[in-house]
Amino acid sequence: MVNLRLVSAALAAAVFLSPGAALAGDLEPVYNIYYYSDSTYTQQVGFDQGGCSYYGAGYVSHSGQSTPYADYQLVGYCYEGNWEPL
């Protein structure tokens, strides 16, 4: 005879231990980040290029300096490891 409590516990564990959002097929936004020298946002000093991989959205390259004065530009979405441009 099957132990009903054991089966219920196994089903509950399967639900709560499932993969995260990036592996479940959700859209994740991908941004390019432009860094500026100060709060006037007139002189760009750095750049991060957004990208996509199996693990989800992230940054694929960086150039220049990172500063607190950043402008985020939505450039697309990451879906199941694939790039989806706007």
Task: Give a description of the structure.
The structure is a single chain. Strands 3-2-1-4-5 form a 5-stranded antiparallel β-sheet, with no helix packed on it. The protein has one domain. The radius of gyration is 20 Å and the shape is elongated. A hairpin with a 2-residue loop joins β4 (70-79) and β5. It has helices at 4-16, 21-24, and strands at residues 28-36, 44-53, 56-64, 70-79, 82-85. With 86 residues, it is an alpha+beta fold.
What's the SSE blueprint?
Elements: H1 4-16, H2 21-24, E1 28-36, E2 44-53, E3 56-64, E4 70-79, E5 82-85
Antiparallel strand pairs: 1-2, 1-4, 2-3, 4-5
What key phrases describe this protein's structure?
5-stranded antiparallel beta sheet, 86 residues, disordered N terminus, elongated, alpha+beta
Strand content: over 45%
What is the H/E string?
A: HHEEEEE
Strands of the largest sheet, in order across it? 3-2-1-4-5
What is the radius of gyration computed over CA atoms, rounded to a whole number of angstroms?
A: 20 Å
Low-confidence parts lasting 5 or more residues at pLDDT below 50? 1-23
Overall, the morphology is: elongated
User: What's the helical proportion of residues?
Assistant: 10-25%
CA-to-CA gap between the ends? 55 Å
